[in-house]
Fold:
Amino acid sequence: MGRQKALLPWRGTTLIQYQIQALLDAGVAEVVVVLGYRAETLRPLVEPFPGAKTALNLRYRTGRSSSVRAGLRKIEQRAQDMLVLGVDQPRSAEAVRMVMEAHRRLGSLITYPAFRGKGGHPIIFSSALLPELMRIKESRQGLREIVERHRSDVVRLEVENAEVVLDLNRPEEYQQAMEEAGFS
Structure:
């Protein structure tokens, strides 16, 4: 992206702050923000949010799996479900709430949204999968390995909201998303 994604402007704030607030507004009980690169720059943006805390991943260069494991080590033991969402996948509180409600209502092990056949985020895992989640590795496709292993217990929630597949990996994707949101 050419700069730290978490600090990109998004809907009147930064991506990281937008996402934390959306998760809390959706009813997520505890938000664990995994920091790695330039953590000291991002930590002050997380601290003002009651219900949010940070986890430090010093191995962030090894891939997303190490960040997921770092975050899982910081969750409360009583957590029933774990929601995973990247900062470059901004989701509104409404989109997050919709997936959470479906997950609870259907009692699935894993729930994620899809738009026009394309899988999206956030993805929610039952706490019953925590031991498996703590063993994910990039070399085994990370979270995808868990989803595939439990395919019969996965709910793929088809929605009419393209937001669930938004992923801001390249400058042109970010620019297009800003234009579509009317912020260009």
Q: What stands out?
A: DSSP finds seven helices and nine strands in the chain.
